[in-house]
Amino acid sequence: MHPAHSSPIPYPVHALGDYLSKVVIAIHQKTRTPQAICAQSVLAAASLIMQSRSDVTLPFGQKRPLSNFFLSIAETGERKSTADSEAIQAIKDYEKALGSCYQSQHDQWENEQAVWDQERQRILHDKKHNANYQARQACLNGLGSAPCEPLKPMLLCEEPTLEGLCKLLQNAQPRIGVFSTEGGQFFGGYSMSDDHKIKTVSALSQIWDGVPIKRIRAGDGISIMSGRRVSMHLMIQPYIAQKVLSDPLLRNQGFLSRLLIIAPASAAGTRFYKKAPIEADQILANYTKHFMDILEMPMPLAHGKQNELDLPSLTFTDTAAKVWIEFHDYVERLIIEGGEMEPIKGLANKLPEHAARMAGVLTLVENSQATEIDHNNLEQGITLAKYYASEALRLVGGCHIPPDLQLAIKLLSWLHLKWDCPIISLPDIYQKSIYAIKDKSTAHKIVRILEDHRWLIRLPQGGKIKGIHRQDVWRIVRE
To answer: Which of 250, 378, 380, 467 has the fewest Cβ atoms surrounding its Cβ within 10 A?
Structure first.
Protein backbone atom coordinates (compact mmCIF):
# COMPACT_ATOMS: atom_id res chain seq x y z
CA MET A 1 0.00 0.00 0.00
CA HIS A 2 1.54 3.20 -1.15
CA PRO A 3 0.98 6.76 0.07
CA ALA A 4 0.64 7.85 -3.55
CA HIS A 5 -1.32 6.86 -6.63
CA SER A 6 0.93 7.56 -9.58
CA SER A 7 3.91 5.43 -10.49
CA PRO A 8 7.29 6.80 -9.44
CA ILE A 9 9.78 7.76 -12.10
CA PRO A 10 13.04 5.77 -12.07
CA TYR A 11 15.80 7.07 -9.83
CA PRO A 12 18.42 8.91 -11.94
CA VAL A 13 21.26 6.62 -10.89
CA HIS A 14 23.55 8.12 -13.56
CA ALA A 15 23.42 11.45 -11.70
CA LEU A 16 25.45 9.90 -8.87
CA GLY A 17 28.45 9.86 -11.20
CA ASP A 18 30.31 6.97 -12.79
CA TYR A 19 31.77 5.69 -9.52
CA LEU A 20 28.71 5.63 -7.24
CA SER A 21 26.34 4.57 -10.03
CA LYS A 22 28.39 1.38 -10.46
CA VAL A 23 28.17 0.80 -6.71
CA VAL A 24 24.38 1.21 -6.77
CA ILE A 25 24.03 -1.24 -9.64
CA ALA A 26 26.30 -3.75 -7.87
CA ILE A 27 24.17 -3.58 -4.70
CA HIS A 28 21.02 -3.99 -6.80
CA GLN A 29 22.50 -7.00 -8.58
CA LYS A 30 23.42 -8.65 -5.28
CA THR A 31 20.23 -7.88 -3.33
CA ARG A 32 17.54 -7.32 -6.01
CA THR A 33 16.44 -4.33 -3.94
CA PRO A 34 14.82 -1.50 -5.97
CA GLN A 35 17.56 0.69 -7.41
CA ALA A 36 16.08 3.80 -5.79
CA ILE A 37 16.60 2.31 -2.31
CA CYS A 38 20.15 1.23 -3.19
CA ALA A 39 20.90 4.74 -4.48
CA GLN A 40 19.34 6.39 -1.43
CA SER A 41 21.44 4.27 0.93
CA VAL A 42 24.66 4.95 -0.96
CA LEU A 43 24.06 8.70 -1.13
CA ALA A 44 23.18 8.76 2.58
CA ALA A 45 26.39 6.92 3.46
CA ALA A 46 28.41 9.33 1.33
CA SER A 47 26.71 12.30 3.02
CA LEU A 48 27.54 11.01 6.50
CA ILE A 49 31.21 10.66 5.59
CA MET A 50 31.70 13.80 3.50
CA GLN A 51 29.89 16.10 5.94
CA SER A 52 33.05 16.01 8.08
CA ARG A 53 35.36 16.93 5.18
CA SER A 54 33.93 20.26 4.05
CA ASP A 55 31.01 22.68 3.90
CA VAL A 56 29.73 24.37 0.75
CA THR A 57 29.55 28.12 0.13
CA LEU A 58 26.54 29.08 -1.95
CA PRO A 59 26.91 31.80 -4.61
CA PHE A 60 25.31 34.41 -2.34
CA GLY A 61 28.06 33.80 0.24
CA GLN A 62 26.53 31.71 3.01
CA LYS A 63 28.12 28.44 4.13
CA ARG A 64 26.01 25.32 4.42
CA PRO A 65 26.78 21.80 5.68
CA LEU A 66 26.99 18.85 3.31
CA SER A 67 24.66 16.94 5.64
CA ASN A 68 21.49 15.48 4.12
CA PHE A 69 18.31 13.97 5.57
CA PHE A 70 16.79 11.06 3.62
CA LEU A 71 13.50 9.19 4.00
CA SER A 72 12.83 5.94 2.13
CA ILE A 73 9.31 4.49 1.98
CA ALA A 74 9.01 0.80 1.21
CA GLU A 75 6.97 -2.18 2.30
CA THR A 76 8.29 -5.05 4.37
CA GLY A 77 10.16 -7.55 2.23
CA GLU A 78 11.80 -5.09 -0.17
CA ARG A 79 15.24 -6.06 1.21
CA LYS A 80 16.01 -2.50 2.21
CA SER A 81 18.01 -3.63 5.27
CA THR A 82 20.20 -5.83 3.08
CA ALA A 83 20.92 -3.05 0.62
CA ASP A 84 21.59 -0.54 3.39
CA SER A 85 24.02 -2.91 5.06
CA GLU A 86 26.08 -3.07 1.86
CA ALA A 87 26.01 0.72 1.51
CA ILE A 88 27.22 1.49 5.04
CA GLN A 89 29.75 -1.36 5.39
CA ALA A 90 32.71 1.04 5.60
CA ILE A 91 31.02 3.01 8.38
CA LYS A 92 30.34 -0.18 10.36
CA ASP A 93 33.94 -1.33 9.84
CA TYR A 94 35.25 2.04 11.03
CA GLU A 95 33.02 1.93 14.11
CA LYS A 96 34.35 -1.54 14.88
CA ALA A 97 37.93 -0.32 14.55
CA LEU A 98 37.21 2.58 16.90
CA GLY A 99 35.55 0.23 19.36
CA SER A 100 38.51 -2.15 19.44
CA CYS A 101 40.76 0.70 20.64
CA TYR A 102 38.26 2.39 22.92
CA GLN A 103 38.47 0.22 26.03
CA SER A 104 42.26 0.46 26.37
CA GLN A 105 42.08 4.22 25.69
CA HIS A 106 39.36 4.58 28.32
CA ASP A 107 41.34 2.59 30.89
CA GLN A 108 44.40 4.76 30.26
CA TRP A 109 42.30 7.92 30.56
CA GLU A 110 40.85 6.78 33.90
CA ASN A 111 44.37 6.24 35.24
CA GLU A 112 45.56 9.62 33.98
CA GLN A 113 42.44 11.28 35.41
CA ALA A 114 42.97 9.65 38.81
CA VAL A 115 46.59 10.86 38.93
CA TRP A 116 45.56 14.35 37.78
CA ASP A 117 42.80 14.56 40.44
CA GLN A 118 45.19 13.41 43.14
CA GLU A 119 47.87 15.91 42.12
CA ARG A 120 45.34 18.73 42.03
CA GLN A 121 44.16 17.93 45.52
CA ARG A 122 47.76 17.78 46.72
CA ILE A 123 48.45 21.27 45.33
CA LEU A 124 45.27 22.69 46.83
CA HIS A 125 46.01 21.31 50.29
CA ASP A 126 49.80 21.68 50.42
CA LYS A 127 49.84 24.77 52.61
CA LYS A 128 53.42 24.24 53.76
CA HIS A 129 55.02 24.65 50.34
CA ASN A 130 52.30 26.74 48.68
CA ALA A 131 51.26 29.02 51.48
CA ASN A 132 49.75 31.74 49.34
CA TYR A 133 47.12 31.97 46.66
CA GLN A 134 49.48 32.99 43.85
CA ALA A 135 51.79 30.05 44.47
CA ARG A 136 48.98 27.50 44.44
CA GLN A 137 47.53 29.10 41.31
CA ALA A 138 50.90 28.86 39.56
CA CYS A 139 51.13 25.18 40.48
CA LEU A 140 47.62 24.54 39.18
CA ASN A 141 48.47 26.31 35.93
CA GLY A 142 51.54 24.15 35.66
CA LEU A 143 49.41 21.04 36.15
CA GLY A 144 47.46 21.89 32.98
CA SER A 145 44.01 20.85 31.89
CA ALA A 146 42.40 17.59 32.88
CA PRO A 147 43.01 14.66 30.50
CA CYS A 148 40.45 14.41 27.69
CA GLU A 149 38.12 11.44 27.87
CA PRO A 150 38.33 9.37 24.66
CA LEU A 151 35.43 9.83 22.28
CA LYS A 152 32.66 7.23 22.28
CA PRO A 153 33.24 4.94 19.26
CA MET A 154 29.92 5.66 17.54
CA LEU A 155 28.96 7.13 14.19
CA LEU A 156 25.57 5.47 13.76
CA CYS A 157 22.52 5.64 16.00
CA GLU A 158 19.08 4.29 15.14
CA GLU A 159 16.42 6.00 17.23
CA PRO A 160 17.95 8.55 19.59
CA THR A 161 16.03 10.93 21.78
CA LEU A 162 17.00 14.55 21.27
CA GLU A 163 18.80 14.59 24.60
CA GLY A 164 20.59 11.37 23.72
CA LEU A 165 21.69 12.74 20.36
CA CYS A 166 23.03 15.92 21.96
CA LYS A 167 25.00 13.91 24.55
CA LEU A 168 26.39 11.73 21.77
CA LEU A 169 27.52 14.80 19.82
CA GLN A 170 29.15 16.13 22.97
CA ASN A 171 31.05 12.94 23.83
CA ALA A 172 31.45 11.07 20.54
CA GLN A 173 32.43 11.75 16.96
CA PRO A 174 31.45 15.18 15.55
CA ARG A 175 29.91 13.37 12.55
CA ILE A 176 26.85 11.28 13.34
CA GLY A 177 24.35 9.39 11.21
CA VAL A 178 20.80 8.78 12.44
CA PHE A 179 20.29 5.71 10.26
CA SER A 180 17.53 3.17 10.76
CA THR A 181 15.89 0.55 8.58
CA GLU A 182 13.02 0.62 11.09
CA GLY A 183 12.36 4.35 11.06
CA GLY A 184 8.86 3.79 12.40
CA GLN A 185 10.49 3.34 15.81
CA PHE A 186 11.81 6.89 15.54
CA PHE A 187 8.54 8.45 14.40
CA GLY A 188 6.58 6.42 16.95
CA GLY A 189 9.05 6.86 19.79
CA TYR A 190 9.50 9.21 22.72
CA SER A 191 11.11 12.05 20.77
CA MET A 192 8.20 12.26 18.32
CA SER A 193 5.40 11.95 20.88
CA ASP A 194 2.94 14.82 21.02
CA ASP A 195 4.72 16.40 23.99
CA HIS A 196 8.18 16.35 22.40
CA LYS A 197 7.66 16.42 18.64
CA ILE A 198 7.99 20.15 18.06
CA LYS A 199 11.13 20.32 20.21
CA THR A 200 12.71 17.41 18.38
CA VAL A 201 11.98 18.51 14.81
CA SER A 202 12.95 22.11 15.57
CA ALA A 203 16.31 20.95 16.90
CA LEU A 204 16.87 18.59 13.96
CA SER A 205 16.07 21.40 11.54
CA GLN A 206 18.65 23.62 13.24
CA ILE A 207 21.23 20.83 13.12
CA TRP A 208 20.53 20.43 9.37
CA ASP A 209 21.10 24.17 9.01
CA GLY A 210 24.48 23.86 10.74
CA VAL A 211 23.51 26.07 13.69
CA PRO A 212 25.53 25.49 16.91
CA ILE A 213 23.63 23.29 19.35
CA LYS A 214 22.85 25.11 22.59
CA ARG A 215 21.62 23.15 25.61
CA ILE A 216 20.66 24.61 29.00
CA ARG A 217 19.82 21.99 31.63
CA ALA A 218 19.63 22.19 35.41
CA GLY A 219 21.80 19.11 35.88
CA ASP A 220 24.26 19.56 33.02
CA GLY A 221 24.47 23.35 32.97
CA ILE A 222 25.06 25.21 29.73
CA SER A 223 26.72 23.60 26.73
CA ILE A 224 27.30 25.08 23.29
CA MET A 225 28.40 22.62 20.63
CA SER A 226 29.76 24.03 17.41
CA GLY A 227 31.21 22.13 14.50
CA ARG A 228 28.93 19.09 14.67
CA ARG A 229 27.30 17.46 11.65
CA VAL A 230 24.39 15.02 11.43
CA SER A 231 23.03 13.17 8.41
CA MET A 232 19.91 11.04 8.51
CA HIS A 233 18.43 8.11 6.63
CA LEU A 234 15.19 6.61 7.92
CA MET A 235 13.32 3.79 6.21
CA ILE A 236 9.61 3.51 6.96
CA GLN A 237 6.61 1.54 5.77
CA PRO A 238 3.85 3.17 3.71
CA TYR A 239 1.20 3.28 6.43
CA ILE A 240 3.64 5.18 8.69
CA ALA A 241 4.61 7.43 5.78
CA GLN A 242 0.98 8.43 5.38
CA LYS A 243 0.98 9.81 8.92
CA VAL A 244 4.36 11.51 8.54
CA LEU A 245 3.63 13.19 5.20
CA SER A 246 0.22 14.45 6.31
CA ASP A 247 1.39 15.73 9.72
CA PRO A 248 0.71 19.50 9.70
CA LEU A 249 3.32 20.16 12.40
CA LEU A 250 6.11 18.47 10.43
CA ARG A 251 5.04 20.31 7.29
CA ASN A 252 4.56 23.77 8.82
CA GLN A 253 7.67 23.63 10.97
CA GLY A 254 9.78 22.94 7.89
CA PHE A 255 11.09 19.50 8.79
CA LEU A 256 9.57 17.82 5.73
CA SER A 257 11.22 20.38 3.44
CA ARG A 258 14.59 19.15 4.69
CA LEU A 259 13.82 15.51 3.82
CA LEU A 260 14.72 13.94 0.49
CA ILE A 261 12.03 11.31 0.06
CA ILE A 262 11.64 8.29 -2.19
CA ALA A 263 8.82 5.75 -2.46
CA PRO A 264 9.77 3.35 -5.25
CA ALA A 265 7.49 0.73 -6.74
CA SER A 266 7.70 -2.69 -5.15
CA ALA A 267 10.08 -5.20 -6.70
CA ALA A 268 8.11 -8.16 -5.31
CA GLY A 269 7.27 -10.69 -8.00
CA THR A 270 10.14 -9.62 -10.25
CA ARG A 271 13.14 -10.79 -8.23
CA PHE A 272 13.72 -14.13 -9.86
CA TYR A 273 17.06 -15.63 -8.95
CA LYS A 274 19.95 -14.41 -11.01
CA LYS A 275 23.53 -14.74 -9.86
CA ALA A 276 25.23 -11.39 -9.47
CA PRO A 277 28.20 -10.77 -11.77
CA ILE A 278 31.59 -11.59 -10.26
CA GLU A 279 32.66 -7.97 -10.61
CA ALA A 280 29.86 -6.82 -8.28
CA ASP A 281 31.74 -8.10 -5.22
CA GLN A 282 34.94 -6.39 -6.35
CA ILE A 283 33.13 -3.10 -6.96
CA LEU A 284 31.67 -3.20 -3.45
CA ALA A 285 35.00 -4.17 -1.88
CA ASN A 286 36.70 -1.22 -3.60
CA TYR A 287 33.84 1.07 -2.54
CA THR A 288 34.12 0.01 1.09
CA LYS A 289 37.89 0.51 1.06
CA HIS A 290 37.54 3.94 -0.60
CA PHE A 291 35.11 5.16 2.05
CA MET A 292 37.18 3.55 4.83
CA ASP A 293 40.24 5.43 3.62
CA ILE A 294 38.33 8.72 3.81
CA LEU A 295 36.96 7.92 7.27
CA GLU A 296 40.50 7.28 8.51
CA MET A 297 41.77 10.64 7.25
CA PRO A 298 42.32 13.21 10.03
CA MET A 299 39.30 15.47 10.36
CA PRO A 300 39.74 19.26 10.15
CA LEU A 301 39.26 20.15 13.82
CA ALA A 302 39.19 23.44 15.68
CA HIS A 303 42.46 24.18 17.52
CA GLY A 304 42.67 22.32 20.80
CA LYS A 305 39.39 20.42 20.24
CA GLN A 306 38.98 16.70 19.71
CA ASN A 307 35.42 16.69 18.35
CA GLU A 308 34.67 20.18 17.02
CA LEU A 309 34.98 20.45 13.26
CA ASP A 310 36.55 23.51 11.67
CA LEU A 311 35.66 22.83 8.07
CA PRO A 312 36.96 24.35 4.86
CA SER A 313 34.33 25.20 2.28
CA LEU A 314 33.79 24.12 -1.28
CA THR A 315 33.16 27.05 -3.61
CA PHE A 316 31.61 27.08 -7.08
CA THR A 317 33.53 27.60 -10.26
CA ASP A 318 32.27 30.60 -12.24
CA THR A 319 30.38 28.33 -14.64
CA ALA A 320 28.86 26.32 -11.79
CA ALA A 321 27.75 29.52 -10.05
CA LYS A 322 25.89 30.60 -13.19
CA VAL A 323 24.21 27.18 -13.45
CA TRP A 324 23.16 27.35 -9.77
CA ILE A 325 21.69 30.84 -10.16
CA GLU A 326 19.74 29.72 -13.25
CA PHE A 327 18.34 26.76 -11.30
CA HIS A 328 17.51 29.00 -8.34
CA ASP A 329 15.50 31.34 -10.58
CA TYR A 330 13.89 28.41 -12.42
CA VAL A 331 12.54 27.05 -9.12
CA GLU A 332 11.45 30.51 -7.98
CA ARG A 333 9.24 30.88 -11.05
CA LEU A 334 7.53 27.56 -10.25
CA ILE A 335 6.49 28.32 -6.67
CA ILE A 336 4.12 31.19 -7.47
CA GLU A 337 0.44 30.60 -6.71
CA GLY A 338 -0.77 27.98 -9.14
CA GLY A 339 2.80 27.12 -10.18
CA GLU A 340 4.01 23.58 -10.67
CA MET A 341 5.95 23.49 -7.40
CA GLU A 342 3.52 25.54 -5.34
CA PRO A 343 2.19 22.40 -3.54
CA ILE A 344 5.75 21.69 -2.27
CA LYS A 345 6.81 25.29 -1.75
CA GLY A 346 8.67 24.48 1.48
CA LEU A 347 10.90 21.92 -0.21
CA ALA A 348 11.19 23.97 -3.39
CA ASN A 349 12.55 26.95 -1.46
CA LYS A 350 15.41 24.72 -0.30
CA LEU A 351 15.82 22.82 -3.57
CA PRO A 352 18.81 24.86 -4.84
CA GLU A 353 20.53 24.28 -1.50
CA HIS A 354 19.73 20.55 -1.65
CA ALA A 355 21.30 20.47 -5.11
CA ALA A 356 24.45 22.22 -3.83
CA ARG A 357 24.79 19.88 -0.85
CA MET A 358 24.48 16.76 -3.00
CA ALA A 359 26.87 18.21 -5.59
CA GLY A 360 29.38 18.83 -2.81
CA VAL A 361 29.09 15.24 -1.61
CA LEU A 362 29.58 13.89 -5.14
CA THR A 363 32.57 16.17 -5.64
CA LEU A 364 34.31 14.83 -2.53
CA VAL A 365 33.53 11.22 -3.41
CA GLU A 366 35.53 11.76 -6.60
CA ASN A 367 38.27 13.79 -4.91
CA SER A 368 38.32 14.08 -1.12
CA GLN A 369 40.79 17.00 -1.40
CA ALA A 370 38.64 19.05 -3.80
CA THR A 371 38.11 22.75 -3.10
CA GLU A 372 35.64 23.58 -5.90
CA ILE A 373 32.37 22.24 -7.31
CA ASP A 374 32.39 22.29 -11.09
CA HIS A 375 29.34 22.58 -13.33
CA ASN A 376 29.26 18.82 -14.04
CA ASN A 377 28.88 17.88 -10.39
CA LEU A 378 26.41 20.70 -9.85
CA GLU A 379 24.27 19.54 -12.77
CA GLN A 380 24.27 16.07 -11.23
CA GLY A 381 23.08 17.60 -7.95
CA ILE A 382 20.36 19.50 -9.81
CA THR A 383 19.20 16.33 -11.57
CA LEU A 384 18.90 14.62 -8.20
CA ALA A 385 17.09 17.63 -6.70
CA LYS A 386 14.57 17.61 -9.53
CA TYR A 387 13.96 13.91 -8.98
CA TYR A 388 13.29 14.43 -5.27
CA ALA A 389 10.97 17.32 -6.15
CA SER A 390 9.01 15.05 -8.50
CA GLU A 391 8.71 12.44 -5.75
CA ALA A 392 7.52 15.10 -3.29
CA LEU A 393 4.88 16.31 -5.75
CA ARG A 394 3.69 12.75 -6.26
CA LEU A 395 3.62 11.97 -2.57
CA VAL A 396 1.88 15.21 -1.61
CA GLY A 397 -0.77 14.36 -4.15
CA GLY A 398 -0.91 10.89 -2.65
CA CYS A 399 -1.95 12.32 0.69
CA HIS A 400 -5.40 12.88 -0.83
CA ILE A 401 -6.19 9.20 -1.14
CA PRO A 402 -9.53 7.46 -1.57
CA PRO A 403 -11.58 6.92 1.61
CA ASP A 404 -11.34 3.10 1.40
CA LEU A 405 -7.54 3.26 1.26
CA GLN A 406 -7.51 5.67 4.20
CA LEU A 407 -9.62 3.19 6.19
CA ALA A 408 -7.24 0.37 5.23
CA ILE A 409 -4.27 2.38 6.51
CA LYS A 410 -6.09 3.15 9.77
CA LEU A 411 -7.12 -0.49 10.22
CA LEU A 412 -3.57 -1.67 9.58
CA SER A 413 -2.28 0.73 12.22
CA TRP A 414 -4.91 -0.53 14.68
CA LEU A 415 -3.99 -4.15 13.97
CA HIS A 416 -0.30 -3.46 14.65
CA LEU A 417 -0.75 -1.27 17.70
CA LYS A 418 -3.96 -2.42 19.41
CA TRP A 419 -4.71 -6.03 18.44
CA ASP A 420 -2.52 -8.51 20.32
CA CYS A 421 -3.53 -11.75 18.55
CA PRO A 422 -1.66 -13.10 15.51
CA ILE A 423 -4.96 -13.71 13.69
CA ILE A 424 -8.22 -11.79 13.39
CA SER A 425 -11.75 -12.55 12.23
CA LEU A 426 -14.20 -10.45 10.27
CA PRO A 427 -16.52 -9.92 13.29
CA ASP A 428 -13.54 -8.74 15.34
CA ILE A 429 -12.89 -6.09 12.72
CA TYR A 430 -16.38 -4.61 12.45
CA GLN A 431 -17.22 -5.05 16.14
CA LYS A 432 -13.96 -4.08 17.85
CA SER A 433 -11.68 -2.11 15.51
CA ILE A 434 -11.88 1.50 14.33
CA TYR A 435 -15.23 3.25 14.54
CA ALA A 436 -15.54 3.91 10.79
CA ILE A 437 -15.72 0.15 10.08
CA LYS A 438 -18.97 -0.89 11.76
CA ASP A 439 -20.61 -3.39 9.39
CA LYS A 440 -19.68 -6.65 7.71
CA SER A 441 -19.78 -5.27 4.17
CA THR A 442 -17.36 -2.42 4.91
CA ALA A 443 -15.06 -4.70 6.88
CA HIS A 444 -14.90 -7.21 4.02
CA LYS A 445 -14.09 -4.46 1.51
CA ILE A 446 -11.26 -3.04 3.63
CA VAL A 447 -9.88 -6.50 4.36
CA ARG A 448 -9.65 -7.16 0.61
CA ILE A 449 -7.40 -4.10 0.26
CA LEU A 450 -5.09 -5.37 3.00
CA GLU A 451 -5.11 -8.82 1.41
CA ASP A 452 -4.13 -7.34 -1.96
CA HIS A 453 -1.16 -5.65 -0.31
CA ARG A 454 -0.15 -8.79 1.64
CA TRP A 455 -0.80 -7.40 5.10
CA LEU A 456 -3.52 -10.02 5.75
CA ILE A 457 -3.36 -13.66 4.67
CA ARG A 458 -6.60 -15.64 4.71
CA LEU A 459 -6.67 -18.95 6.59
CA PRO A 460 -8.96 -21.27 4.55
CA GLN A 461 -9.79 -23.49 7.54
CA GLY A 462 -10.64 -20.55 9.79
CA GLY A 463 -9.26 -20.38 13.30
CA LYS A 464 -9.98 -20.08 17.01
CA ILE A 465 -9.85 -16.61 18.52
CA LYS A 466 -10.28 -16.25 22.27
CA GLY A 467 -11.93 -19.63 22.49
CA ILE A 468 -14.37 -19.13 19.59
CA HIS A 469 -13.91 -20.80 16.22
CA ARG A 470 -14.37 -18.31 13.36
CA GLN A 471 -14.71 -19.13 9.67
CA ASP A 472 -13.48 -15.84 8.15
CA VAL A 473 -10.01 -15.49 9.67
CA TRP A 474 -6.77 -13.86 8.50
CA ARG A 475 -3.18 -14.00 9.71
CA ILE A 476 -1.71 -10.54 10.34
CA VAL A 477 1.67 -9.82 8.72
CA ARG A 478 3.65 -7.79 11.25
CA GLU A 479 7.18 -7.82 9.79
So the answer is: 467
- Model's pTM, two decimal places? 0.79
User: For 167-176, 345-354, 390-399, which range has the lowest pLDDT when averaged over its residues?
Assistant: 390-399
Higher pLDDT, 236 or 145: 236
Domain count, the chain: 2
Quick one: 416 and 272 in the same domain?
Answer: no
Residue 33's CATH number: 3.40.50.300
Chosen domain end from 285, 312, 339: 312
Among candidate residues 312, 337, 354, the one where a domain is terminated: 312
Has residue 457 been placed in a domain? yes
Q: Look at residue 453 and tell me if it is in a domain.
A: yes
Q: Is the pLDDT of residue 64 over 70?
A: yes
pLDDT reported for residue 85: 95
Three-state SS string over the chain comes to CCCCCCCCCCCCHHHHHHHHHHHHHHHHHHHCCCHHHHHHHHHHHHHHHHCCCCEEECCCCCEECCCCEEEEECCCCCCHHHHHHHHCHHHHHHHHHHHHHHHHHHHHHHHHHHHHHHHHHHHHHCCCCCCCHHHHHHHHHHHCCCCCCCCECCCEECCCCHHHHHHHHHHECCEEEEEECCCHHHHCCHHHCCCCHHHHHHHHHHHHHCCCEEEEECCCEEEEECCCEEEEEEEECHHHHHHHHCCHHHHHHCCHHHEEEECCCCCCCCCCCCCCCHHHHHHHHHHHHHHHHHHHCCCCECCCCCCCECCCEEEECHHHHHHHHHHHHHHHHHCCCCCCCHHHHHHHHHHHHHHHHHHHHHHHHHCCCCCEECHHHHHHHHHHHHHHHHHHHHHHHHCCCCHHHHHHHHHHHHHHHCCCCCEEEHHHHHHHCCCCCCCHHHHHHHHHHHHHCCCEEEECCCEEECCEEECCEEEECCC
